[in-house]
Amino acid sequence: MVVSLLEKVRALNPIVANVANGVTIDQVANAQNAIGASPIMSNAPEEAEEIVTIAQAITINIGSLWAPQIQEMMALMTAAYQQQKPIVLDPVAVGSLAYRQQIIEQLLILDTPTLIRGNAGEIAYFAGIDWQANGIDAGHGNSNPVIIAKAAANRLHTIILLTGPTDIITDGQRVTLISNGTSLFQTHVGSGDMLSGLCGAFVAVHPADPYQAAIEAAATFAVAGELVATAMETPLPGTFYPQLIDYLFHITPAKVANTVQLSEVPTHE
Amino acid sequence: MVVSLLEKVRALNPIVANVANGVTIDQVANAQNAIGASPIMSNAPEEAEEIVTIAQAITINIGSLWAPQIQEMMALMTAAYQQQKPIVLDPVAVGSLAYRQQIIEQLLILDTPTLIRGNAGEIAYFAGIDWQANGIDAGHGNSNPVIIAKAAANRLHTIILLTGPTDIITDGQRVTLISNGTSLFQTHVGSGDMLSGLCGAFVAVHPADPYQAAIEAAATFAVAGELVATAMETPLPGTFYPQLIDYLFHITPAKVANTVQLSEVPTHE
Amino acid sequence: MVVSLLEKVRALNPIVANVANGVTIDQVANAQNAIGASPIMSNAPEEAEEIVTIAQAITINIGSLWAPQIQEMMALMTAAYQQQKPIVLDPVAVGSLAYRQQIIEQLLILDTPTLIRGNAGEIAYFAGIDWQANGIDAGHGNSNPVIIAKAAANRLHTIILLTGPTDIITDGQRVTLISNGTSLFQTHVGSGDMLSGLCGAFVAVHPADPYQAAIEAAATFAVAGELVATAMETPLPGTFYPQLIDYLFHITPAKVANTVQLSEVPTHE
């Protein structure tokens, strides 16, 4: 695998505007900063248009939903579609809550985000496949996650990054699997949100190919998490997080390329 | 002491819905996750009813109060009372601020929370006892904290967990004291909020006996904090927090039972 | 340099009320607590007046702006001016966003804050000097930061703390430079916000001389950051933050005085 976008993020220092989950907003900002991007957060629809103007990408996270934030999401996304800036959507708990499904449908009416990052329970919602999501957690179901991801990508005509023990990136046709990572991603709240934030940083510097941006963001994050966890005597979620930020700060393209366990699923499988 | 609920939290992985303090929302989510629960946060009254439906307990924290959040608290608590889900209330700074007293009185009109966790300055308010609270800190007063806790429990007909150098759990009759802990709980902002969050996790798996749930939550947290602080060469609040999350992740019932310094105050004392 | 206010903060344990940046609110609270102050956060205009009454200083941060927060800022600042409590303003990204400039102008109509802490891109806005700010980052420009800081102080008749590789404190006439610090302040999101929070703690105990309070806050923070970074085998932003909180907790006036590299710019330079 050639990792080319990481250096581009560091060289271009793109501004990524975030409507963040209040729970993990600090983690997202610090992960974006560590990788080389410049985060900005806003909750004011009044500044949405100019925020999008100065930003190279936006990320939308519905994790701690409240009404004024929805207006901000609508305003930022509308401006981003108009200005053709890429949008990463993180649909936290959409598989478990009808209200969040309603909000997501409102957001999808505007247009389709460039990339959606979620766990199996969240992506199954977009695929229209039955799944027992468990709040913010993936939950369980009988379908193959690859089929879920492809179905969601095909229904929405977008790129899907379905994260779990194996990360799945698909545009509905092509499917890339990344099997790095650590179980600490499940035990540390904020892991998924940070990865969505990193997707924003990578797609910011390569908006023409969000499939590749998603692959590199997922690979970088999974490799960083795996190597941090492996180096810990006992993998534990509290001290994991600051070390993960450290690792994102100094990770190199060569380290990602040499460590990533990536495979492509044949298109007609 | 028999510690039975910790394993139950890990086995059942209950969803705890939180209206959180913006300051410490990340800490609460990660503490709940580390102990084995699944946190979900919401600020949208529109999803209160279904959030309560998927949750096994809710926690309400008034630490960074704003008007839309109050509507969410009302909506979540109303749904929780209807669905008979346990509620943990953390009345941050209620001893210092008349507006927060007014909000708390509005919340109490709905019904009585299952458990209230606060410091002496906060619980003294519910007891109707004079006390000089100091913002978010306990402050100082002349009354015995055990008397304050019992008075509050008796006035409200609920379980009180009054935290301080000694933690006091009471239903107005029975009183349990836990003398573990660390002074770092005072120097790290978020300690009380995390414990309230853990109370939500423990009461979620044992709603029939919130007195026992409060004892086990307080014992688990106090033992974890004490053992982390004791193991530090110099106890310091910044590196304490990630290690505390680590410890909550791997603490065992046996460790709690063997370390806890617990005593019961005779009822007619 | 005589460092006298640090011990005063620890002795008096002042309450500092914050309208915080949602991204870094946890960091600000913990930094204030570590240094010896007692933070309180609020977003409810209804409690602004009594919050100011119990507080010795307030800090206002516009980093994650949303409309209801602006009302809270107005209410807190109005009460603070009436009660003559010092105000520290952190104008995050004001150099990049016209909407934030509009909000800042609304806030300045009330009266002038005691102290404004920002990077070159933010302070250049107040100075009316051209500068290419980059979102939350300083960006770049051709003017000398000392000239920018003095111009801002003179236009607003207030104290300016312009932070960067060299921190500049000025009242428009006197200029103090502090050249301690670490590049990790740039790679850790929240560094500037924490320093603004510390300014609140220092000015709370010495409201008669905000120039001196700003110098001591900046010196304490820069020395702490520098010594933490120097002690790290490889300076990295994730593990830097918890250690910085540790250091703020145990830093002594003697350590600050012995480490600070401070110079005064002659007035007629």
Mean pLDDT of chain A: 94
Range of strand content of chain A: 15-25%
**What portion of residues of chain A is helical?**
40-55%
- Fourth-level CATH superfamily of chain A: Ribokinase
Detail the poorly predicted runs of chain A.
Answer: none
Enzyme class (chains A, B, C): transferase
Protein name (chains A, B, C): Hydroxyethylthiazole kinase
GO molecular function (chains A, B, C): kinase activity
Family (chains A, B, C): Belongs to the Thz kinase family.
Structure description:
With 269 residues, the first copy, chain A, is of the alpha/beta class. The first copy, chain A, has a single domain, classed as Ribokinase (UDP-N-acetylmuramoyl-L-alanine:D-glutamate ligase). The first copy, chain A, is built from twelve helices and eleven strands. Chain A has helices at 5-12, 25-35, 48-54, 67-82, 98-110, 120-127, 145-156, 184-187, 191-204, 210-231, 237-250, 253-259, and strands at residues 15-19, 38-41, 57-61, 87-90, 115-119, 132-134, 137-140, 159-163, 167-170, 175-178, 262-265. In chain A, the strands form two sheets. Chain A has a nine-stranded mixed beta sheet with strand order 2-1-3-4-5-8-9-10-11, with helices on both faces. The model of chain A has no long low-confidence stretch (mean pLDDT 94). Chains in contact: A-B, A-C, B-C. The A-C interface holds A 13, 15, 20, 22, 25-26, 29-30, 33-34, 38-44, 46-47, 50-51, 54-55, 68-69, 72, 241-250 and C 21-24, 26-27, 63-69, 93, 96-100, 134-137, 187-190, 234, 236-239, 241-242.
